[in-house]
Amino acid sequence: MCGIIGITGTQKVVADLIYGLLTLQHRGQDSAGIITFDKMFHTKKGKGLVSEVFNEKHYERLKGNIGIGHVRYTTHGTDTIQNAQPISTNYPYGIAMVHNGNVTNFKEMNRVLYEDYHVLPTSTNDLEILLYTFAAELKNKDLKNLSVKDIFDAVKITQRKVEGAYAVIGIIANHGLLAFMDPYGIRPLILGKKETENGISYGFASENITFDHLGYEVIRDLQPGEIVYIDEQQQVHSTIGHREKQHFCVFEYMYFAREDSIFYESNVAGKRVRLGRSIAKQFIEKNIQPDIIIDVPSSGYFAASGLAEALGVPHHRGLVKSNYIGRSFIAPKQSEREDMVNKKLNPIKKTINGKKVAVVDDSIVRGTTSKHIVELLRHAGAKEVYFVSAAPPVKHPCVYGIDMSVKTELIANKMNVDEIKEYIGADALFYFDLAELPEVFNKVSICDACFTGNYPTPDVEKILEDIEEDRKQE
Predict the structure, then answer these.
(1) How would residue 456 be classed by pLDDT, with cut points 50, 70 and 90?
(2) 2 is catalytic
(3) Burial (CB count <10 Å: 0-12, 13-18, 19+), residue 30
């Protein structure tokens, strides 16, 4: 899972790109990068946060009225600078790209690139699969008279060949800004527009909150398989390419997106509240009444508020998070995740001491964070601890851009609910009921493969075997 942005307009875009990436920082903290175009590509990439990679000199150096940006959370390939995005190629025309997601037929397409297209990738970033496949198809067109149809046709072939989850934004030098979705629409991408004194600017971003901060009007979410191209005259062209039934990632609502984001007319905060309200029924059935409900900041807040409202129990802030330590879930190594959890959370003892506490987190993936939180609350004097996951048990690996791609790392794949309860040390454990997902997410068709094992794309078992083998070698 990463954050991407692309802007084309009639004035320099670097300031909006940098600030836009700051609004998407929660989606990736490993590296950040921007490419702009003005007669040539201007590139800046680096490891770390946006504020660490960019400084004042880059506002001058990154010239051009068109550009793309990326914040990376490593899922495919290593977190080296070679794998940082954007990535560009000089032929044909000059094409630069960013993407959010995961290419699942990476090994097969790597072979195709070398044997059929005679391209040797320079990194282990799966964006190169998308970039070079599209470039190879585009160079077969009439390069002196490139049409919108030619661009759309090249994308459609790319969509058919490249499998997985991806939202892509690209620059075609001296032509325009391109965006396209995978056939299932697994990853989000939003189209926005801003009218200025100098003319109209258009943009694409992973979340609408980016446009809220930049003063853009949100036009709409891109649809599964959709292709949008904005030419140099700021004319917007769109079509549906290769399309299948929508499978939008449910974890966008449950964890990754910011609470004030909206996807397909559904507010993230509102969905999380509904998850919490639904779980209240299980408390009532088991006749368990907590004294207080607290959340694991900050993604557990709205589910906790929904649970508290439904039970009529006070919702308090019982854990304090250091805002200067990143999101433990997206840290690349287990040892780093555990260390971040140990450092970033601290209980408010006066709130916790002597109370029966229900603590709500967005999910339980590996179980280490949950175990540590229960221990923190015990040490703070909690009388009883009831742990609540606002997501169903995560039993199956994700191959679409979330770093939970190995079965052995998923606690619910190895243990049942009672065993997990004992492992984390809770007095009671509650998961959101999988059967109620369709009721909560009734306006968008979701991908719930991490809960059900029903993967929308083909050949996932072979892909999981390859991932397991790669992890063993690492």
Answers:
(1) very high
(2) yes
(3) buried
